[in-house]
Design a protein that fits this description.
heterodimer, A: mainly alpha, B: mainly alpha
Chain lengths: ~270, ~260
């Protein structure tokens, strides 16, 4: 009976082997071999002894922290406000809608917005500030990346806020907690799982962005993703590119462990 | 006071969220050449877009690619979900973990490892490699959309059908398929948007011959502002809104149908 119906999933199993297992193995093989196909740690050594590479990795990590922090700062209050609104579904849909618009187009819009005479500079002039170079700066990169990621942070936070038992808040208020205390001692800890999910959803893509670094960061920002793209498509050093890929995966797994490990204590 | 503060924040946040999109669309109707000052209303950029045969061809290719890849991914993913649904214990867990690898992997990694894969397998870079990649990264989301529906399935219905002498095919087509259809449709829709939205993976596995809209916009945007892109984005905005509207309408219909039944 089992064998009869299992031909159903042959394409799926084939997909698992060809596009999940095999790419992972090949990436690892490429990372730990040299140009002659011998097993070696030359790529890892090259990465760890090259100051520029290490600096790039630390910078990439730091940018991801900044982007995630900025996104959280904007998204948490937004999720909180929406959770108190009357037409929550409509507002949520409006948060999700921009994610359905091509990433490239949203990024392209910022080339205009941040330009020398763009809207932001015009607004700055209105309040009496001199126009400045905004495009192709590190700040611009962080802002645009945060803009792109906001919906992915709002959704999980909103979900955990929505699941919150309103009676707990009422109880806190009854017991004399101020609204700040209620938030900090009750609401925030109870919505931490949502925050963690949001941080995971934002932090990992932020490490690997490479298109925004080129279009908005003007090659000033090099993330791990940019480095991989460069090694694979420009300098054609796939072994080094794969090594950085492996390092990116390791960092990713560490971040996932760090953000989800605490949950078991509760 | 608090209410006003909340309303203000809500308005501010949504102005920020939609400013770039509206800004793009607004300048697509300007007769000028940049996104600085709105000259006067004109359709000129839409005319340029309409006569840009290369871009229109790429637009068409992108749509065909999205439809093809999402249909194939939905078929394979639905079968995969059915397979996983029938597994138990550690086998099921292993399959689910492997299924989710491409969901959490950064797209740069997916692109790079697929590129190595295609080279190892001797598959040339072009439409076919891009199609395979799009199918590949869309399958897991289809599985994740279909699996919960399968778990909600009333197994006594299947037993009853078997008792009444229904064959495997009849059971799947007449009982399972209608029940999991909403999941399949969501999966198809997600696969469509994944394919339309992808840039990074395509960028890695496309050769010189084949381009999707994302890749083309990238190379044009690197050369600076071109209001033809604005016109294009306004058109795509409309397409996305129609798609979203259609999807909402479909799910709403299903919810209404469910509501009527219970």
């Amino acid at each position: 009976m089992r064998s009869k119906s299992s031909f159903f999933i042959i394409p799926y199993v084939l997909w698992l082997l060809l596009f999940v297992v095999m790419p992972m193995i090949l990436l690892a093989v490429n990372a730990f071999t040299n140009g002659q196909g011998q097993v070696s740690l030359v790529n890892l050594r090259a990465f760890l002894t090259n100051g520029a590479c290490l600096k790039m990795m630390v910078n990439s990590f730091w940018y991801a922290v900044l982007i995630t922090g900025l996104t959280l700062l904007i998204s948490y209050p937004l999720a909180l406000v929406i959770a108190h609104c009357r037409h929550q579904r409509v507002w949520l849909l409006l948060v999700i809608l921009p994610t359905w618009i091509n990433l490239l187009l949203k990024t392209y819009a910022f080339i205009g917005l941040l330009g020398q005479h763009g809207l932001i500079n015009q607004a700055l002039q209105l309040i009496g500030l001199a126009p400045r170079q905004l495009l192709f700066t590190k700040t611009a990169f962080v802002i645009v990346a945060a803009y792109i990621e906001i919906p992915f942070m709002v959704l999980p936070i909103y979900n955990s806020l929505h699941a919150l038992d309103q009676q707990i808040i009422a109880a806190a208020r009854d017991l004399g907690a101020s609204s700040w205390q209620t938030f900090w001692r009750v609401v925030w800890p109870l919505t931490l799982p949502g925050v963690r999910a949001g941080v995971q959803a934002v932090f990992i893509p932020s490490l690997s962005l490479f298109m925004i670094t080129r279009l908005i960061g003007g090659n000033k920002v090099i993330t791990l993703g940019t480095a991989i793209e460069e090694y694979f498509l420009t300098t054609m050093n796939w072994h080094m590119g794969s090594m950085i890929g492996v390092i990116l995966i390791v960092i990713m797994v560490l971040v996932l462990l760090a953000t989800s490990g605490k949950e078991q204590n509760k | 006071m608090k209410r006003i503060g909340r309303a203000l924040y809500l308005i501010l946040a949504f102005v920020l969220l939609y400013l770039p999109i509206v800004y793009l669309a607004y300048f697509s109707f300007s007769s000028g050449k940049d996104m600085v000052r709105f000259q006067h209303f004109s359709w000129v950029h839409y005319q340029v877009l309409w006569s840009d045969k290369e871009l229109l061809a790429i637009f068409l290719q992108t749509i065909i690619l999205a439809i093809l890849s999402s249909l194939i991914a939905t078929a394979i993913g639905t079968c995969g979900a059915w397979g996983i649904f029938r597994l138990r214990g550690y086998r099921r867990k292993t399959m689910l973990v492997l299924n989710n690898v491409l969901m959490v992997a950064p797209d740069v990694i997916i692109g790079a490892s697929f590129l190595i894969c295609f080279t190892a397998l001797g598959i040339g870079l072009g439409f076919f490699s891009v199609l395979l990649s799009h199918i590949a990264f869309s399958i897991p989301i289809v599985v994740l959309m279909v699996l919960p529906r399968l778990q909600d399935l009333d197994l006594t219905l299947i037993d009853a059908a078997q008792d009444l002498g229904a064959g495997r095919g009849v059971i799947f087509n007449q009982i399972v398929l209608p029940e999991i259809m909403p999941g399949i449709l969501s999966g198809l829709f997600m696969a469509l948007t994944y394919s339309l939205d992808d840039f990074a993976v395509t960028f890695f596995v496309t050769g010189n011959g084949f381009k999707t809209l994302s890749v083309e916009i990238y190379s044009r945007a690197r050369q600076g502002i071109n209001l033809e892109i604005n016109a294009l984005s306004t058109v795509m905005l409309l397409v996305v809104m129609l798609l979203a509207g259609g999807y909402l309408f479909l799910t709403r219909q299903h919810e209404l149908a469910l509501g009527a039944r219970s």
